[in-house]
User: Fold C-type lectin domain-containing protein from Rhynchophorus ferrugineus.
Amino acid sequence: MSMLHETCKLKLIISVLVLVNINAECVSPKKYVVSSDKAGFHTAFITCRQYGYEPAEIHSLAEQKMVEELLKNEKLGLENGYWIFATNLDEKKAYYWLNSGRRLLYSNFSAGQPDNYNNMENCLHVFHTTPGRFAWNDIPCNSNIRFLCQHNQVCD
Ligand SMILES: [Ca+2]
Assistant:
């Protein structure tokens, strides 16, 4: 009986520790960073990890606004945009976020996009439209452009 009690207590302590641990590692609100170098989509994906970040995903209008806030004062890379890490490479139909595997429940495509121009476009970037605004578009995955990463252990 005492033994059982101790086991329950231990489980409770472990549960609390796990909760505390998750909270401690969360970065909230979510934070994005922009790369200084350029790369193709898949190299950029790995490079985010090498920087100690995750490849950036935009899951809501609020996150889109955060990205626009980050990029609005950027001078470099405006002409070519920045990778966000969604692709349709596996089934060539529906886009999904490569790191989390989530579908694009929120999106902010430019008018007429994604158009898979010349049947060669399977990766997404955000690009400058009007001052302070950025929309999404599909481009060839081997395009050499800057990219967005996000902090690890996002709380959402
Ligand atoms: Ca396109």
